[in-house]
Amino acid sequence: MTFDPGDDDPRLTRLLQTVRADADPALWTRVRARLESRRRLPALLAWAMRPAALAASVALLVVAAGATLMLGAPTAMLPSTSVAASLTTPEEEATLGDALVAERDAEAAPPAVTAAPAGNGAVRDSGERR
Amino acid sequence: MAQLGAPPFVPLLNTESRLGFSNEEDLIARLRARDLDALGELYRELGGAMTTLARTMLRDADEAADVVEDALLKVRDAATGFRGTRGLRTWVLRIVANRCRDLLRRRRFTAGRPEDFDPIAEAGLRSEPLASWDEGIDQARLLVVLERAIDALPPEQREAVVLRDRLGLSYEEAAETLGVSVAAIKSRLFRARASLREALKPLAEG
Asked: CA of A53 to nearest chain B CA: how many angstroms apart?
């Protein structure tokens, strides 16, 4: 003990000790009820209510949602397709294909109509009815 | 499951026995085993000191009740890790003091007390008349002035006064409770007592 009576002021201490508070029985009843309700909670539910468990559940949900999206749209993730191609619909793809084929055919075939040489035999198209 | 055999709660009011345990080791062992009756016993023994500390520090009975309630739950949760080296009373009061400090830090910039603030009634404290008070001074008024002076002390000095002078802890126990050296406690008490004497001087002279 390092108690030094010279440091204390008995008169002041006596005054200070006349004021105090008592333990509140209602508070203990409240605490007891809280602890007993906590005890009644099933262990799994109690664990699930912990912040870490809630965070883990949310993370799991996000991963599961991501996996579901990936499985639901397999063509979108093919590595050989470009982003632009993945954005086209089958109808658009068919139209583009047709257009390319038509263009190639057009280049390979001779021109159906050649320009008439300018001269006497040329028929002029005046726009008038014959 | 409710324990029907639990004895009714009767708080201890006696100053001398209020802070003492008959068998502290046994109580700690039961607290570690999460025995709810052990926690009730702890509150029966220390509830008065916990409540006095919280109410004197906060001057708000409701806030003090919340602090004591939280402290009991903390004791219950942390008892398994309690080594017992510091002493149960010191440990429990330290939890209360820390919670009070947190609340006081949060309300640092709140408005001051009103003029007619009664620091004893507002805090839910009670005063016992001194039997041998023969100095012709209005004791009730003196106590109100004293409590106002305590309320005006910096929190670290207020803690020291409550633990040492009001609750009767030794210097070592008060130091352990607040996590400071004995010299620091003595220094705080010296300054606090000087302020309190200064506040009481006009009444003593008048």
From this structure: 18
